[in-house]
Specification:
With about 475 residues, the chain is α/β, with parallel strands linked by helices. The chain contains 17 helices and 15 strands. Helix 2 runs parallel beside helix 3, helix 7 packs parallel to helix 9 and helix 15 crosses helix 16. The N and C termini lie far apart (about 45 Å).
Length: about 475
């Protein structure tokens, strides 16, 4: 199949072709005709499937070929916002907008991205110029709504990207507030990697007789990714990683650590081994993150060390290697992490360095993905069979338990501390409760601009407290 046969305008097909894509991915082949038809859509697709183009291309087609779109004579003339994409993180929002811009280049449509953690004034200027397609994180968007610096009354198409992530991060109330200011008659597209009851409830409320498409079975890991476990002692993980990178000649590896401190320490250690590495996490400025990502993408940096929150939505073409230096506390994060490799049909490899402390986490992951992952002991790194598990240090001074899934319970245990800080975790609380204690890692909620939001909003809802999200 080619993009020509899907009913997209020549200008859009040309941009796709120039981007180097010749055939639509499965999600694109299904989503594009559905969106062009004008109806609502519920799509089950992870990052890496080509979902962004799956909604961007038909949205651009619709907006550029209707009466108003056809009357636009340049990219700069005055226009109302007609399509709104909500995304959970600034990284994802930025990437989506980059895609929109690229695919819109031969049309007269323009786009903008707004997220927290950066100054609001340039965004106000940008919005005042007139934008066809706005990509935003929910918190900052509401800031603009409150200030009257964005007008959403002409929205024709709403896209919720990575809706499951947005709910996990406590954005449901913000999403509701956004919905309340949109015109009721519009096309709604909901993309989610997983379908929890919360997502189903949101879909029920939001979508009218939606087309439903799913490309990867729920919670399954993409087939093309080779996954394996390297059992290792707790204190041998760093030499093992250096060994893997050097002996295999890996040139581009995304490494996940559980904590920001762990990420920094690992970067330092890899540096001593002569392996170029940088960290991205919530304590890094946006410019440091952008720089690290750019160097990693262009191949000048071997290892990018990331925490889960920082890595969400990172879009890197055909990433060959993902390493779970620490297993994630939340089993679903494993699926998201390894979804960074083997993207859009390319093959990839995901290896996990697992010590005795993490056996329960591994069990939970294997249960979720319904697979037993192969174990490979690396000669010279045989784990001590008599080693005893120790509690995982989830944040300094508070030993925690490996997580047992993504319990709804912690949502009820919120503390209203969506902004920096959060409550100290008590031992025995669900491990995902850790996510509450963040430091504004996502910035789009908490970071940056003079304490962000919160004024006049009352206490944050319980689940919103998770948005801080990093240790
Ligand atoms: P996404 O799931 O939207 O994050 O896209 C995953 C990756 O697939 C991105 O790096 C895209 O650039 C790439 N991609 C999107 N569409 C195609 C296509 N039709 N063929 C090959 N790669 C694609």
């Amino acid at each position: 199949m080619s993009f020509n046969t899907l009913g997209l305008s020549d200008a859009i097909v040309r941009a796709v072709t120039e981007a180097g894509y010749t055939a639509p991915t499965p999600i694109q082949a299904k989503a594009i005709p559905a969106v062009l038809g004008g109806g609502d859509l519920l799509a089950g697709a992870q990052t890496g499937t080509g979902k962004t183009a799956g909604f961007t291309l038909p949205v651009l087609h619709r907006l550029s070929t209707d009466k108003f779109g056809a009357s636009l004579t340049s990219k700069t003339s005055k226009r109302p916002i007609r399509a709104l994409v909500l995304a959970p993180t600034r990284e994802l929002a930025a990437q989506v907008e980059e895609n929109v811009r690229m695919y819109a280049k031969h049309t007269n449509l323009n786009s903008a991205v707004i997220f927290g953690g950066v100054g609001i004034h340039p965004q106000i200027k940008l919005l005042a110029n007139g934008v066809d397609i706005l990509v935003a994180t929910p918190g900052r968007l509401l800031d603009h709504v409150a200030q009257g610096t964005v007008k959403l009354d002409k929205i024709e198409i709403l896209i919720l990207d990575e809706a499951d992530r947005m709910l996990d991060m406590g954005f449901i109330h913000d999403i509701r507030k956004v919905l309340a200011v949109l015109p009721p008659k519009r096309q709604n597209l909901l993309f989610s990697a997983t379908f929890s009851d919360e997502i189903k409830a949101l879909a029920d409320r939001l979508l009218d007789n939606p087309a439903m498409i799913e490309v990867a079975p729920r919670n399954s890991t993409v087939e093309v990714i080779a996954q394996k476990i390297h059992p290792v002692d707790r204190d041998k993980k760093h030499p093992m990683l250096a060994h893997l990178i050097k002996s295999n000649g890996w040139k581009q590896v995304l490494v996940f650590t559980r904590t920001k401190h762990g990420a920094n320490k690992l970067v330092e250690q890899l540096g001593k081994d002569g392996i170029g590495a940088m960290a991205i996490h919530g304590n890094k400025s946006q410019s440091a993150r952008t720089k690290a990502l750019a160097e990693f993408k262009d191949g000048s940096l071997t290892a990018l060390v990331a925490t889960d929150i920082a890595a969400r939505g990172i879009d890197i073409d055909q990433l060959p290697h993902v390493v779970n230096y620490d297993l994630p506390n939340v089993p679903e994060d494993y699926v998201h992490r390894i979804g960074r490799t083997g993207r859009a049909g390319a093959t990839g490899e995901a290896v996990s360095l697992v010590c005795v402390d993490e056996h329960q986490m591994l069990k939970d992951i294997e249960k979720l993905i319904k697979q037993t992952l192969p174990r490979h002991v690396i000669p010279g790194f045989e784990p001590d069979p008599t080693a005893k598990p120790q509690p995982i240090q989830l944040r300094s001074g508070a030993p925690g338990h490996p997580n047992r899934g993504r319990p709804g319970g912690n949502r009820g245990a919120g503390n209203g501390a969506g902004a920096a800080g959060g409550k100290p975790r008590v031992q025995g609380a669900p491990a995902t409760g850790q996510r509450n204690g963040g430091n504004g890692g996502n910035g789009n909620r908490n970071g940056g601009n003079g304490g962000g939001r919160g004024q006049g909003r009352g206490p944050r809802p319980a689940s919103a407290a998770r948005s801080g999200g990093e240790r």
